[in-house]
Amino acid sequence: MNSNSNRTILVIGTLIAVALIALALVAVRGKPAPGAGLNGNFDLTGQPFAGKADAPVSVVVVEDFKCPVCKTFEETIAPELNSKYIETGKAKLYSLVWPFLAENVRLPTDDSKLAAQAAKCVYDQGGNDAFGSFKTILFRAQGSESTVWATKTRLKDLAGNVEGLDQGKFATCLDTDATAARVDADEKQVTDARVNHTPTVFVNGKEVLNGSGQSSYLLADVSAAIDAASK
Q1: 29, 162, 182, 188 - which has most CB atoms within 10 Å?
Q2: Contact at 8 Å (CB) between 206 and 117?
Q3: pTM score
Q4: CA neighbor of 77 nearest in space, from 227, 209, 218
Q5: Which alpha helices (DSSP H) does the chain contain, by range?
Q6: How far apart are CA 11 and CA 93, in angstroms?
């Protein structure tokens, strides 16, 4: 093999190495360091929450009404947070809905988004209390994440259980997709923050992590994060 061939092989090898390094940099760019967690600097204007508006700590739960783990969080962990922090005025708990599951499993109807739109329609009429009631109703009625269950017809039936809600106004809001753009805006906030699962919990803009530096929604870890933010 002559020197020209050797130089050609060397150049090709160098180019391949450079390309592999570039790909590696692209793969890790923008990801937080292990244990650092995500930053959730969300615009929470007009987002539903539980608690007092002047509570010093903001807890944000990113959730999908079709997510079974979110249902578990809302039914087992949120009540504990409510009694310990929300009712005592130490924190307020925001719900930031990220409707991704129906699209993720390629359902013919994006009922994750329909449920999110319906929740905003309820919020627009009845505020935080009505939203909280409807959220509870949605999670209790939750069907399989692999099937379309949150149809507009079903959502109207469920909304009928929200006290004081004008059902005609709700139906018009849902049928005209009046809140769809706002749901899309919420989804953009979540994806821009690089959230990749639900529920994901943030306390004062920082993702809640466990002792191993992994994302956590468990009561002990969320409580520890709130306690630390309260100091």
Answers
A1: 162
A2: no
A3: 0.84
A4: 218
A5: 3-28, 68-72, 78-81, 101-104, 111-140, 152-159, 167-175, 180-192, 219-230
A6: 58
